[in-house]
Design brief:
It is built from 9 helices and no strands. It has 155 residues and is mostly helical.
C-alpha cells in the first residue's frame, strides 16, 4: 500500500501511466511530496519509465539529494542511452557535487546526443574557463550565443 496525503488519497490511479500523469499534476502545482510519491509509484509499476526517473531525480536534486538524483539519471541513461535530458541533468548533478571532470564528460555525451542544446554549451564554457582552457571556453560560449540567438529568433 502507498501512503498518501489528502489530495493523493482522492486520486484514482492504477497504471504506471496514470500514476505518472498524476505525478506531473502534483509537480506542476507544487505538491512536491505527493509528486515524489506518485513518481515512486510509477516506477514500482514500471521500472523502465525513463521520464519518471528523470522527474524524480530532478525533485531529489532540488532537495540536494545529489547521490539519489545521480543514480536515477544514470539508470535513465541505462534504459535509454539516447536521452539528452537525462545526460544533461547528470552533468548538472555531477557539477553540483564538484565532480567536474565527470560533469564535463556528461555534458560532452549530451552534445553527442543533441549538439544544439545551448545550456550544455554554456555549462561547458563555464567549466572550461574555470579550468583555464580558454580556447574551449570561447568555442562553447560562442556556440551558446549563436544557438540562443537562433532560439530567440524562432519564438
Amino acid at each position: 500500500l502507498v501512503k498518501v496525503s489528502g489530495a493523493m488519497a482522492r486520486a484514482q490511479a492504477n497504471t504506471s501511466d496514470e500514476w505518472f500523469e498524476l505525478a506531473l499534476e502534483f509537480d506542476q502545482v507544487g505538491e512536491k511530496k505527493d509528486a515524489l510519491t506518485a513518481y515512486r509509484e510509477t516506477l514500482s509499476l514500471d521500472s523502465t519509465h525513463v521520464n519518471a526517473r528523470i522527474n524524480l531525480g530532478r525533485l531529489l536534486h532540488n532537495e540536494r539529494s545529489y547521490q539519489h538524483a545521480e543514480k536515477l539519471y544514470r539508470e535513465a541513461l541505462e534504459i535509454d542511452p539516447t536521452n539528452s535530458i537525462a545526460a544533461f541533468n547528470l552533468g548538472v548533478v555531477l557539477e553540483d557535487q564538484n565532480a567536474i571532470f565527470e560533469a564535463i564528460e556528461a555534458y560532452l555525451h549530451t552534445l553527442s546526443l543533441d549538439p544544439k542544446l545551448p545550456d550544455v554549451h554554456y555549462n561547458l564554457a563555464r567549466l572550461y574557463e574555470h579550468q583555464g582552457n580558454k580556447k574551449a571556453a570561447v568555442r562553447h560560449f560562442s556556440t551558446f550565443k549563436m544557438l540562443s540567438e537562433n532560439r530567440d529568433n524562432n519564438i
